[in-house]
Design brief:
Chain lengths: 192, 561
């Protein structure tokens, strides 16, 4: 029940003379016209593709291979533990190789559920899972978008040349102003 | 290695008589009252202190070999006779409490010892936590974090020791071992089978089995539980799941009439493993392998999942909502046609007391002279006592021949309700003669159970409700088949061989299509709302006072392991 005293009636303010003559529209149009003559930042995707900062773009995942071409993952479940979206599902098994204890018998990432935060990449103790600059991720069904181990290894084979930079420094931002009387952080330092 | 017995009761909470002779000791300037005869370590743990320890286990003898629990103690000065801190440290696990004792753990000397011990334990320990199953419940991780260094000063190559297959169910990762010898003492003192031993000395010392004699006794799974690190691992649970994903539910093992307190560890509605809980006088700290690995039938795809109704030659799949009406109507019809004494209910010892009571009450409400039958009791061999070959009164653990959890509970209910009752064999005999027209038979056994004579007698029933887990001769012909849930999907209480009424909680949801036994019996008995063990227990206790008090396992000190 809404009580009468909770209802607040708000009247529209009276229009001024300039507003009645649509002058504020001109103010908006000025911004529009200014942008017509600027350099365009949109591209004709998919014919034209943007150049990305590949080293820290967070696109589709890949599972890396080790020097022998085997999956590098040791099935420690750290990514599954760190994942805030619960999109990683691992089934561990005893590895078929002498020098390794454990390996992922099954490794599924639900790419639709993933929020591309990169926590899995940070949690991985063997740098086996990485996010690639691939962003044009399409599929016809939901099942197709659950990437299994083979599919993730394929992504690695495709994007082998790109090495994501670990802990990239955040640049280009200069903190201004003081907070709580403290010194402003140095430009280039990691922002908190 | 000299082994001392601990003296006094090892069980926490066992000496409940708070008499005047409770020794008071002073730990870190705090007066603590403790049970007489326990080691200082146990008293400190019970007072809530986290004293690191590996080799001490309240259920085993004391060797004081890990040196991690050392403490400072005040002793009279040899010259002046004044009480002063002794220059050397004392193992708190091996020092029994004495009234007026003054000790401390909160000193630089003690902490320095802990740091050095931890460094020593980690000398050869591989950094393989990501692939180690113990990670997350590992006391090497915990103590290293709390009491150790953050880095290793080891410059030499670590000793590598390949994993050893020491038994059909257990793996030994020797390089993770801290040589606490708990497993060796367990095999010597509790299982009494002496399979394990320590070979070699110093940094080359390792746990091993004798050639041709694998670790293969009925209690061997406990060595995995008591191993404080990831050295002994269970092949059954190996690599299955990381322990921090598991949800724990307190339960009671249904494997035999001992009624061990257990913990069901499950993840996403799948039971991953069972672990024992401390329950003094029943199972203490242990459980048997039969119970530990006996839960596999829970996820058997052959289990009956939905009710089946047979009308003439037709087979229907009734809705759960219609079941109470169908059952009540058909039983009333049977009473009308064949007489009140032609009705019987077989109460299975696999049922919880609450479920048995609800069913018994329902049957008596439709037919006041109905016969209540104490169900089939599966028996296998003889009681197995441990340590192997000991006398009954010296047994530390017993696996009982009666392979059902609740025979006594069902008997208590049947005798408390009075009226017509009979044993299972008598029931089968009378059923064969056509003494019963309408019956409700409860099974729920993990193994095939229907006796031959019973298979012959099924044709004599006009109307039968069979509540069972797996298809068998009874469910093939029953008028109504109701699925029984496994104990992890139900809740209630079991009465063990000694008459202890022990509650268990439900861990996982019943499989799709099934309904919890308690819930549908609750509905059929005419109650409305949600079935909970506690609710029915209250109703039951009003009629059977014995059920007013239940026995729950005591809490264990947080830092004890």
């Amino acid at each position: 029940m809404i009580r009468d005293e909770d209802i607040l009636n708000v009247d529209e303010p009276e229009l001024t003379a300039s507003e009645r003559l649509y002058f504020p529209i001109l103010v908006g149009m000025r911004t529009t016209f200014r942008h017509i003559f600027k350099k365009k930042i949109t591209v004709q995707y998919p014919e034209v593709q943007r150049t990305l900062r590949v080293e820290n773009y967070r696109g589709v995942h890949r599972l890396n291979r080790d020097a022998d071409g085997r999956v590098a993952c040791v099935a420690c479940f750290m990514c599954e533990t760190a994942c805030p979206a619960h999109c990683i599902h691992i089934v561990a098994g005893e590895s078929p190789w002498e020098d390794r204890e454990k390996y992922p018998a099954q490794f599924d990432i639900d790419e639709l559920r993933c929020i591309y935060c990169g926590m899995c990449e940070e949690a991985c103790p063997v740098d086996a899972i990485e996010l690639t600059p691939e962003y044009d991720l399409v599929g016809r069904t939901r099942e197709e978008m659950i990437f299994d181990k083979e599919k993730l290894l394929e992504v690695f084979d495709r994007t082998n040349g790109v090495k994501p930079r670990k802990n990239p420094k955040i640049t280009g931002y200069v903190a201004t102003g003081r907070r709580n009387g403290s010194e402003p952080p140095r430009p280039g330092a990691a922002t908190s | 290695m000299p082994r001392e017995s601990r003296g006094g009761s090892p069980c926490h909470g066992a000496g409940t008589d708070r008499s005047a002779d409770m020794p008071k000791i002073n730990i870190d300037n705090e007066a603590i009252e403790c049970r007489p005869g326990v080691p200082v370590l146990q008293a400190a743990l019970e007072a809530g202190r986290d004293v690191p320890h590996y080799c001490y286990h309240p259920g085993l003898s004391i060797v004081a070999s890990c040196r991690l629990c050392l403490m400072e103690m005040q002793l009279p000065h040899p010259k002046t006779g004044e009480m002063d801190w002794a220059p050397k440290l004392f193992p708190s696990c091996q020092t029994p409490v004495k009234d007026g004792m003054v000790v401390r753990f909160d000193s630089e000397k003690v902490r320095e010892n802990q740091r050095e011990c931890m460094e020593y334990f980690l000398l050869n320990h591989p950094l393989d936590c990501p692939v180690c199953d113990q990670a997350g419940e590992c006391h090497l991780q915990d103590y290293s974090f709390k009491f150790g260094h953050s880095e290793s000063r080891m410059v030499d190559q670590k000793l590598k020791n390949p994993k050893k297959d020491i038994g059909p169910r257990t793996l030994l990762y020797q390089d993770r071992c801290v040589m606490c010898s708990r497993c060796v003492r367990f095999a010597d003192e509790v299982s009494g089978t002496h399979e394990l031993c320590i070979v070699n000395r110093g940094s080359r010392a390792e746990i091993d089995v004798f050639p041709g004699l694998p670790l293969d006794n009925a209690l061997q799974g406990n060595v995995v539980d008591i191993c404080p690190v990831g050295s002994l691992l269970d092949k059954d649970f190996l690599f299955k799941q990381r322990v921090w994903f598991l949800k724990a539910t307190e339960s009671i093992c249904p494997g035999c009439s001992t009624g061990c307190a257990i913990r069901v560890d499950h993840h996403r509605e799948v039971v991953q493993r069972l672990k024992p809980r401390y329950n003094p006088g029943v199972n203490d700290w242990w459980m048997c392998d039969e119970g530990r690995f006996g839960f596999k039938y829970v996820h058997d795809p052959r289990r009956i999942g939905r009710p089946i109704l047979r009308r003439g030659g037709e087979v229907e799949r009734p809705n759960w909502d219609d079941i109470p009406e169908i059952v009540t109507y058909r039983f009333e019809q049977a009473v009308e046609r064949h007489g009140v004494d032609k009705v019987a209910a077989v109460l299975s010892p696999m049922m919880a007391c609450e479920e048995a009571w609800l069913l018994a009450k329902f049957i008596r409400s439709v037919a006041a002279e109905a016969t209540l039958v104490n169900g089939f009791v599966p028996v296998d061999g003889d009681d197995q006592l441990f340590p192997a070959g000991c006398a009954t009164d010296e047994a530390k653990f017993t696996i009982r021949r009666e392979k059902c959890p609740n025979r006594r509970g069902v008997e208590m209910i049947v005798s408390a309700l009075g009226g017509n009752a009979c044993a299972f064999d008598e029931f089968v005999e009378r059923a064969g003669k056509g003494d019963f027209a309408a019956v409700w038979i409860v099974g729920g056994y993990p193994k095939p159970w229907v006796p031959k004579a019973m298979e012959k007698a099924v044709g004599e029933f006009r109307f039968s409700v069979v509540q069972d887990m797996f298809p068998n001769a009874l469910t093939e012909v029953a008028s109504l088949v109701l699925p029984t849930c496994a104990w992890v999907e139900r809740e209630g209480c079991f009465v063990n061989h000694a008459g202890r009424i022990q509650p268990f909680e439900r861990a996982i949801e019943p499989r799709e299509g099934a309904k919890r036994d308690g819930q549908y019996l609750f509905d059929i008995a005419g109650h409305s709302g949600l079935y909970t063990g506690e609710r029915v227990r209250e109703m039951m206790a009003a009629e059977i006072p014995a059920f007013a008090e239940i026995a729950e396992a005591p809490a264990v000190p947080v830092h004890q392991h």
